[in-house]
Amino acid sequence: MSELARTIVGRLRVFLGNRRAGRRLSVSLPVGVCPLALIQQRNGSRRPSFISGKTYNVSPSGLALIVPVIHIEGHYLVGEERSLVVRMELPDGPLEMQAVPARYERLEDPDLTGYLIGARITEMKDDDRTRYNEFLRTLRQR
To answer: What domains can be seen in the chain, in order of their start residue?
Structure first.
């Protein structure tokens, strides 16, 4: 999908209303993002690099991330059948999840630079899922 098409789709969501499954909660948390393929390629030989970024919003089923670049070591973060490993820093400690990017757009706002990636959460350890859901509950109570 071209950059122009992504921008138009994003604007239509704002105009027509967003039909995502879960209600997104705005919160900025530190994250590290790495393509799962890069981690699998390394196979423990050396630690893969993670791109530092932050969350834009979160929900039980997905999240939006802001990252400064869209590729790392020759691997793109988005594209067909890509999976990401996301390490998120919650107030009570880090957690890790896998997510599949659904869309992205380049940010051109003076206050927000880089790329906004919308992703669907596909996998998370049970204890991390419990902590994540509890964190979401505290956000809803604010």
So the answer is: 3-141 (2.40.10.220)
